[in-house]
Write a structure and sequence with these properties.
Blueprint lengths: L4 H14 L19 H19 L9 H36 L2 H6 L3 H17 L3 H21 L4 E5 L7 E5 L2
Helix pairs in contact: 2-3, 2-6, 3-5, 5-6
């Protein structure tokens, strides 16, 4: 009904002005075929590093100056915020690869991929809830396993290379 198009368009504009649409984010959903678990691995490494930094902080003594206490709280807050951001980024990266890249044929070839993805989601939540370095390292291990399966699904052999970053560890990369 072309007669109602201008009215409908006006109502839509008015509704958008009153309640603006929220932005939508996606990898691309074309699908573009550009996927790489490196960002998830780097996020896992960042979570490990934030737990290391938190563990290295000395709690201020009871008689500490207010500015020393504030400095301590600021550092813990910053480290925790970065850890939260990277845990969410990791979960997003893994979800996108799992949901957009892996096919039913991949699931037959790698039957552990669904459970592994679930474990990563749960472990990322666990790692962000506390400061236990072992939880962050377990997350990193799971993400590395995910990266190995991803590259195998693309027909690539993998190798582990030193990260050369402060937290140490390795990155899973294609061998070729």
């Amino acid at each position: 009904m072309p007669a109602f198009s201008p009215i409908r368009e006006g109502v839509t504009r008015l509704w958008d002005a009153v309640r603006p649409p929220e932005p939508v984010y996606a990898h691309c959903d074309i699908p573009c075929g550009i996927y790489d678990p490196i960002d998830a691995q780097l996020s896992a490494m960042t979570i490990v590093r934030m737990d290391q930094l938190i563990a290295e902080l000395a709690s201020p003594p009871m008689d500490a100056k207010p500015e020393d206490r504030a400095g301590y709280v600021a550092k813990v807050s910053r480290y925790t915020t970065v850890k939260e951001q990277h845990a969410e980024k990791l979960k997003t990266e893994v979800r996108v690869i799992w949901g957009d890249f892996f096919t039913p044929d991949h699931a037959k070839q790698f039957p552990q991929i669904h459970e592994l993805t679930w474990k990563i989601m749960k472990q990322a939540s666990k790692a962000r809830q506390g400061t236990n370095l072992a939880d962050a390292q377990e997350l990193q291990k799971l993400v590395q396993e995910f990266a190995e399966i991803f590259w195998q699904a693309k027909g690539q052999k993998t190798r582990r290379v030193p990260s050369l970053q402060k937290p140490g560890g390795e990155l899973v990369v294609p061998a070729g």
